[in-house]
Amino acid sequence: MHEECGIFGIYNHRQAARLTYLGLYALQHRGQESAGIVSSDGFNVATHRGMGLVDKVFNNDVLRSLPGRLAIGHNRYSTMGSASLANTQPLLVSFFGKGIALSHNGNLINAQELREELESGGSIFQSTMDTEIIVHLLTKFAKSLGKRQALLEALRRVKGAYSLLLLSDHELIGARGPQGFRPLVLGRLGKSFLLASETCA
């Protein structure tokens, strides 16, 4: 069964990467093409991504190399872009000197139009997935609006069904499309907060 990707995020847990791994494992039915996790210790971000199933991409040594109390993860089932490591999420980029990561589930129906507009304005894309369009829009608007307002403006520009997680060095932001076609549930584990594609995570 393919459901167009699974996303999972956790805020404020000492084993954030391990719980993200477990969340992705529970969401494996949503995508078997590739998996990835990005974590943050409040100063730096670390990542590991690979092709295949969650239990083949991650092991204990890899999970120990992903420190921090924040993490997001992604299982990919491609609907846009080829099956390659370059298109594996979370997408980690440098954003005004700091790392940010984005996990996205859904389809942007105006992706080609936005991509052409951004490329004509000088944007250079590193992948063929529509997730990267959101990152370029975020960068474009952040110059004048700041990160949170820029994300809101970027999401106003995209059309389609989506849910997404954005991780920076010290925060986790979740969003979904206005119609709510792509699920994003919020949960709590003690003093930690979780976001996921399904409650099974």
From TrEMBL:
Pfam families of this UniProt entry? GATase_6
Where does the Glutamine amidotransferase type-2 domain start and stop, copy by copy?
5-201
Alphabetical UniProt keywords: Glutamine amidotransferase, Transferase
**Which Gene3D superfamilies does UniProt cross-reference here?**
Glutamine Phosphoribosylpyrophosphate, subunit 1, domain 1
Extract one GO molecular function annotation from the record: transferase activity
Instruction: Say yes or no: keyword Transferase present.
Output: yes
Supply the InterPro entries for this chain: GATase_2_dom, Ntn_hydrolases_N
Coiled-coil regions listed in the entry: none
Q: Which PANTHER family match?
A: AMIDOPHOSPHORIBOSYLTRANSFERASE
Q: What is this protein called?
A: Glutamine amidotransferase type-2 domain-containing protein
